[in-house]
Amino acid sequence: MARDALPTELSTATSTPKHRMKDEMNDYGTFQGRPLDDDYLAELTAEAEAGYEVDEIVRRRGGRPPLGDGPSLVVPVRLNPAQSAALTARIAASGKTRSEIVRDALDAYLIAA
Q1: What residues does each domain of the chain span?
Q2: What pLDDT score does 104 carry?
Q3: Which residue in 28, 42, 81, 86 has the fewest CB atoms around it within 10 Å?
Q4: What is the DSSP code (8-state) at residue 66?
Q5: Using an 8 Å Cβ cutoff, are 66 and 72 in contact?
Q6: If the chain, 113 residues long, is cut into consecutive pieces of 10 residues, what is the mean pLDDT of each piece?
Q7: Do the Cβ atoms of 34 and 40 come closer than 8 Å?
Q8: What pLDDT score was predicted for residue 21?
Q9: How far apart, in whole angstroms, are the C-alpha atoms of residue 26 and residue 24?
């Protein structure tokens, strides 16, 4: 098919990505939407030059909150349909998560043993 036979939006398209069409200063920003302007870069530079407290950075990291002193072990469990329905009903009644209910049940079983 000849280029002049293509629809207008295809024949005038360029290979330049849209994010490169913007002004270079507006290309980048934080996840919260703050642009990386000179003032913000100066703040970040001053913070880096002052040094970071490693314990504070480790404490702020993302992810799930710890359940104890060390990393948690994920244990997949298979449930039959009756157990699954009973667990879903308990979740709705208690407002707890599936994991909380399973951990509570396991704790009760281990204490009673």
Answers
A1: 20-61, 78-113
A2: 94
A3: 81
A4: P
A5: yes
A6: 51 48 59 85 89 73 73 90 95 93 94 86
A7: yes
A8: 45
A9: 5
